[in-house]
Structure to design on (1266 residues):
């Protein structure tokens, strides 16, 4: 039964010791400014860190560290908690010797230093990045306990850099013949991904800035490609080379991974777009409500095809829905935070959210996805997430239907 | 445009030298653009494999310890059809690299650029030809006495077991593509009977560590103590 | 003369060793994911930290640490670099025992725990915070070398919290009689500031979230008041109490400080609004250009009265102006990033930016401000900033006119 | 509305107890709302001052070491006019607390809530009356044998030297206020002769440490080495 934390009641003349007694921070002198010249979170936030999912990968340098969405607010992901995904580990590259080469179907193959790039006309734009494999563990069945592991390969940052288009024009790229771009990373995996220039030329950024400062080493310092709406693996980190070409490259991570196995044994290749998706982050799997009563139910919604138009929330497993409030501004290919009022009466409930984007696309149920794609896709699982709230106040991960 | 700058952005960037392009432009495409000349035999490949690769991937590319297996799961018949038949079998436990990879260029490109994992860029082109030949021989795609080279690699491509196993017939290459699934916007009485199809298995409750320690210790949304069963 | 870094030129067959030779990060295995469960910036960013201005204050627990604007991008300030201003030091308050009391002209004086507050309907909004004393050192003459010290008491974050209005209504506040709100902090200074409810009721937030995570201890963890458009001192940190009243409180920091001395010896009191202002951050004071040629000149603009409508940039000390590009979205009472193309021909130049907000207000020159307010105001210096670029490539802080 | 929750937000918050409001509602307004009963003499104040305050603020509140001086700069004439005359003197080097503070309630409230700086909330109301009396005596606002109390503090207010020194006649209390200055939107030929009125003084070049170490060591915007003169 609910009521784990009954509210304190006091007789007149009495009260809460936290108020009646003076606290250390009211009665002594605090710490100096710049005690931490670069600050860190409160000691009380230590539980909210990036974490690996045990058994997901075999080695930690080709693995994932998930963002703790269960404790985050708003839309911006703090850089220290941005999810990590590396294929051959990460390095602190030396930005002084880092180079970007542009070659292929261009008039002049050119080389740029960071000095060069940071002098070019820049833009700053907020976009989500989601790994194509996010929620991939759940194609078959419920597998992991919390939203950190179901949805934590998702972050949203303000990126600053030079538009790809400016750089390609500067090199005299032949964009008639050259419909494809190879992006190559400077790490050991030399990560290579083919970018669809027809679809991505207008909003792709060669970025160095993330949430106001330089990219973090784990996220590609000093240079990464930002390809809004497209799965994270294409946002090549430690970006070293761009080659304009007339066909896709079929690199390892587009011919052996990031392909989706369909029921007939065929693999879908070059499925790049992250479709419209949402998830309730509080309350979410593994959380424990202490009490009945009013709750602000909150979550995130995003679409690789544009802007979020509406988010509906159900508390009865999808039978009835109410429309949530959207925080503004609603930006294209970015996270939108939604909130909705709810009074929990102590009975079991199943919470779901469902996002609709401005193309009219509606986030589907896992059953609808499986009916078409089977359950061995790994990638691009944008199903409605269900959280079951038990009468004991515990929330757990379930699938309905 | 001069070597040293453009008219639009004076002073910024410079033309790459031929040597620089050669040094960095190492990618190999499905049409073999970018493939350096060279050759290597299965036997040579086996020697390199055993000294540089087998520790992680197993002597026969079968190991699941460090990464999913490289070889296995393909048949002589697949080599003919260009479709790995077992991929349609939903009980197939695992997909090896050879079951998936449609193009031999992919193997060549990736091994040359990224393997061995702990010493990437240490192989020569000839090494790479040899190792690819060895891997292909593990899948019975080439005979054990095969010598792979830039001149015969296009022929080998015609034997890749999953060369016809890829489709781009979907709406996900571009934001303008058509989705294959669309949800419902029903608002009321949408589901007659809400049925839970899958729940977190008991063994998974604490498999990610204690969830109580992965949430704030204050505020309304604590983590449940997953070392214990749910509270009554 | 310019040309400190002449571009490298190579004969065919030769090239840049940074390209021709393989780097460590291409030839070895990198570090694991979650090596840093909460990440930190690259080692190459170590120079960009919060810093005190020597001699500005006498003790470091009643002082300022300035944000290194010279190295930041876009609009979001990373939490680790948010400026600090304390009057009695900072503490890591225990959020479990933190309380918010609301009293005064209310039907029921009420107490809220963090558990309570975080269950209430929340909003997430991006706003700038600027200390009223920002640029105060420059009222008289040029005094400090870089934009970190001239403008670094400025940050911009996405805040999440419950709207003040929701809380006051919940307590049955008498908003007819109660036009004033006292906000009180939980630190040793018990910081107290009077808030103008008529002007600020609609957009003030009782916030716990900052850029997606909890407030940092230096910025008021676990609770601070967010009063958009109003000087930073009113954004009371470690917020403990709100009292609704019918007159201003004349607290120490509104009767002895944060008052502006006019030429006639009168002090302006309760001058709260941060007026429209802008500054070029790159290039800026103390920076050294390495070369002639193309530059993206970039800066920040903001207004406590609304949205930025236009930013103009001059390269000749204010004689001629060109309109800069504004990054979107342009949000109310938030930072807007501007950028403008420029080719430096190697001759001396004076760079200025001038912002205009949607009330039609135009950022004034320092002379215009001094003509009305003299030079002993300390607070609310929103003058146009001038940076002189010498032919040696060095940028320095000057005032013109 | 019940003690334990509202109808709008069931389960959230509770009514404060009277003891809790007393414990926290310690602010004192200009109309002396919130002022506790009590009293203290200048002589008592001096004793406390010398033991608890003088180390930072000086025996006569004159110290500039830890904070700007508390006392000084006011005259007997100012006590009459309620305007500190020296504030109009642009050569006045420094403004003390007593030169600025218009309301005695401000001193009482602040000292009680926040001083001594390293031990706030350690003074009793009587201590605070005494200290305020002592500070006022330093400014010749009250005589040296004065006893300040809740009953005579309103009379003392009438003698505060800068009680008439504050104006709210400006447009900055609200976003709807009218600005006192507005710039020019001139785009071309706006200034006949651009004159530099002020430059960074030589002694200030390196006063904030080496600027080279406060910028990136890569990228187009390095810091200049401020330990040396500008490069030629
Ligand atoms: C120290 C361990 C290690 C060694 C040695 C090693 N590999 Fe790997 N290999 C890996 C890991 C880990 C991956 C997965 C990398 C990733 O996540 O992208 C991998 C991936 C591969 C792949 C891609 C498989 C797929 O399905 O994606 C091939 C092919 C490969 N290795 C071949 C080789 C060859 C050839 C060698 C020797 C020349 C070699 N490996 C040596 C660990 C190793
Ligand atoms: C350890 C040093 C220290 C001690 C001891 C100390 N103070 Fe202070 N005092 C300060 C500092 C520092 C400030 C400025 C605080 C701020 O920035 O808000 C200050 C501010 C003040 C002010 C406000 C002055 C102004 O113009 O803002 C008054 C009044 C004051 N102190 C009185 C006292 C009294 C009375 C005592 C003893 C009961 C005392 N102080 C003990 C350091 C001290
Ligand atoms: Ca150059
Ligand atoms: Ca190529
Ligand atoms: Ca064989
Ligand atoms: Ca409760
Ligand atoms: Ca009061
Ligand atoms: Ca005297
Ligand atoms: Co991925
Ligand atoms: Co301030």
């Amino acid at each position: 039964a609910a009521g784990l934390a009954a509210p304190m009641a006091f007789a007149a003349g009495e009260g809460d010791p936290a108020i009646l007694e003076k606290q250390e921070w009211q009665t002594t002198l605090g710490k100096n400014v710049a005690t931490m010249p670069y600050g860190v979170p409160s000691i009380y936030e230590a539980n909210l860190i990036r974490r690996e999912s045990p058994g997901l990968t075999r080695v930690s340098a080709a693995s994932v560290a998930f963002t703790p969405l269960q404790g985050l607010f708003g839309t911006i992901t703090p850089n220290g908690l941005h999810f990590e995904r590396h294929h051959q580990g990460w390095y602190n590259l030396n930005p002084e010797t880092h180079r970007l080469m542009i070659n292929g179907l261009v008039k002049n193959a050119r080389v740029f230093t960071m000095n060069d790039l940071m002098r070019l006309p820049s833009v700053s734009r907020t976009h989500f990045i989601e790994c194509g494999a996010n929620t991939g563990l759940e194609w078959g069945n419920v597998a992991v306990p919390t939203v950190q592991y179901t949805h934590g390969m998702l972050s949203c940052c303000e990126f600053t850099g030079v538009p790809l288009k400016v750089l390609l024009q500067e090199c005299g790229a032949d964009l008639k013949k050259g419909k494809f771009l190879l992006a190559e990373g400077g790490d050991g995996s030399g990560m290579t991904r083919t970018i669809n220039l027809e679809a991505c030329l207008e909003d792709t950024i060669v970025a160095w800035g993330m949430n106001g400062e330089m990219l973090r080493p784990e996220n590609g310092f000093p240079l990464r490609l930002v390809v809004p709406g497209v799965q994270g693996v294409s946002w090549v980190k430690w970006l070293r080379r761009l080659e304009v070409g007339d066909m896709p490259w079929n690199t390892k991570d587009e011919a052996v991974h990031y392909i989706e196995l369909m029921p007939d044994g065929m693999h879908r290749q070059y499925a790049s777009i992250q479709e419209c998706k949402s998830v309730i982050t509080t309350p979410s799997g593994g959380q424990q409500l202490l009490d009945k009563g009013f709750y602000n139910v909150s979550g995130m919604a995003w679409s690789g095809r544009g802007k979020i138009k509406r988010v509906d929330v159900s508390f009865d497993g999808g039978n009835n829905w109410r429309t949530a409030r959207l925080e503004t501004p609603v930006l294209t290919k970015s996270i939108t935070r939604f909130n909705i009022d709810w009074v929990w009466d102590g009975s079991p409930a199943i919470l779901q959210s469902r996002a609709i984007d401005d193309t009219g696309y509606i986030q589907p149920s896992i059953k609808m996805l499986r009916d078409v794609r089977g359950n061995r896709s790994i990638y691009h699982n944008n199903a409605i997430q269900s959280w079951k709230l038990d009468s004991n106040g515990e929330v757990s991960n379930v699938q309905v239907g | 445009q001069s070597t040293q700058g453009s008219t639009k952005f004076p002073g910024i960037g410079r033309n790459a030298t031929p040597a620089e392009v050669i040094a960095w432009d190492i990618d190999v495409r499905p049409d073999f653009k970018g493939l350096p000349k060279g050759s290597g035999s299965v036997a040579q490949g086996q020697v390199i494999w055993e000294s540089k690769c087998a520790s992680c991937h197993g002597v026969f590319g079968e190991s699941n310890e460090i990464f999913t297996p490289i070889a296995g799961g393909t048949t002589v018949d697949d080599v003919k059809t260009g479709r790995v038949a077992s991929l349609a079998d939903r009980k197939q436990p695992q997909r090896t690299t050879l079951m998936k990879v449609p193009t031999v260029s992919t193997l060549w490109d990736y091994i040359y650029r990224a393997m061995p994992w702990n010493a990437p860029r240490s192989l020569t082109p000839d090494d790479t030809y040899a190792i690819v030949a060895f891997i292909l021989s593990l899948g019975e795609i080439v005979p054990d006495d095969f010598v792979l080279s830039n001149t015969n690699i296009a022929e080998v491509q015609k034997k890749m077991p999953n060369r016809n196993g890829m489709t781009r017939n979907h709406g996900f290459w571009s934001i303008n593509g058509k989705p294959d699934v669309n949800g419902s916007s029903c608002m009321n009485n949408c589901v007659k009977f809400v049925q839970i199809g899958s729940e977190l298995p008991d063994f998974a409750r604490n498999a990610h560590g204690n969830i109580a320690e992965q949430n704030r210790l204050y505020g309304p949304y604590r983590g449940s103590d997953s070392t214990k069963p749910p509270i009554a």
